[in-house]
Amino acid sequence: MRPHVAIGLLLVVAASAWAQTKPADLRTYETRYYVIHTDLGRDVAREAELRLTRMAEEYRRRTSEFSGEIRKKLPFYLFKTEAAYRAAGGTPNTAGVYNPNTQTLMAFAGDDGPNLQTWHAVQHEGFHQFADQVIGKGLPIWANEGLAEYFAESIFTGDTFVPGIVPQFRLKRLRATIQKDGFMPLRELLGLSHAEWNKRISVTQYDHVWSLTHFLVHAEGGALQEKFVAFLKAASGGAGNGFETHVDRIETIEAKWRKYWTSLPDDPTADLYAEATLRTLTNFLARATARRQRFDSFETFIAAARSDGLKTTETDWLPPSLLKVAVARAAELQKTGGKFEILADAPRPPRIVYSDAKGDEMVGRFTLKGARVDQVIVERTAGKSP
Prior knowledge:
The structure is a single chain. By secondary structure, this protein is of the alpha+beta class. The chain has three domains: about 10-135, Glutaredoxin (3-Layer(aba) Sandwich), CATH 3.40.30.160; about 170-265, no CATH class; about 270-380, no CATH class. About 45% of the residues lie in helices and about 15% in strands. It has helices at about 40-60, 80-85, 115-135, 140-150, 170-180, 185-190, 195-200, 205-220, 225-235, 245, 250-265, 270-290, 300-305, 320-335; strands spanning about 25-30, 35-40, 75-80, 95-100, 105-110, 155, 160, 340-345, 350-355, 360-370, 370-380. The strands form three sheets. It has a five-stranded mixed beta sheet with strand order 1-2-3-5-4. Strand 6 and strand 7 (about 160) form a beta hairpin. Helix 1 (about 40-60) crosses helix 3 (about 115-135), helix 5 (about 170-180) packs across helix 8 and helix 12 (about 270-290) crosses helix 14.
């Protein structure tokens, strides 16, 4: 496995004279927000177009109170090989990078094509490009990196992203670092300049800013989110690093942050993983339904998914790799007591019901507009368990 994709990513700021030899045989695709250049096949380009369009909309929607509009199409280069990526200016030991000097976002896929690590890097680096071009240059480095990591952990479902994910391996690493007092004091972290960040760059640093961002968005039932947004709005407008003015005393936040992360149970976002799985499967069920496919059970639906038997249209195409991941995640959920069921009671469209081992339910629904998928919705209903 490659080193953590964030390591060294912002070293590009100090590298104003990168040698860039972009291959002449790249195919170019203009999309709503990006101009995509790639030496990979059309299906990969289609996946990149879909993911990046939804990614830009996710950035914009969640930063609307302190960002501007996307007024020009952003350049994105996706290479098949690391050698081509490096020749074009990609940083060694990274899967993706944003170069502010050329305003270029780049990544490489490898021989087997893009995987979740590739898109993790693109979601992280894409936020740096978005911040640079749409938010402005006032964000302090810790917030820029923390938000990039927050978006990187989000799960793409075909129509949107599910944010707020806490991977168990990262929670475990975070707890261990807290236990051995391995994080720098929060006041010191918030005061780091861009140059100081680059000098001290490490996985621990990225864990620190990601966990702080997640805490400010989700802790205390989201009570700190409005204050965090006020801080980001002021900072992006050039008001400086007035964290205590808008949020709270730094030492108070540090104590709450520490308690929050050490008190979380294992797999604290298992419901979000399940939601992402259900939403993805519902996206594919909606497309199959629009093509008049019917399934009398979840098992027959999954069997069709595994045999590439789900129908769709060109205009509603979704990447097969997305379905493959969702089918695998659904199988894992079933192993731990989760249950899926398709309810088909015409004339209503079919829907997928997921219940976890505690009895809590989610329902994946969709609406069609003609032969097109109009909307996919996941609703939660409380089960009988306490």
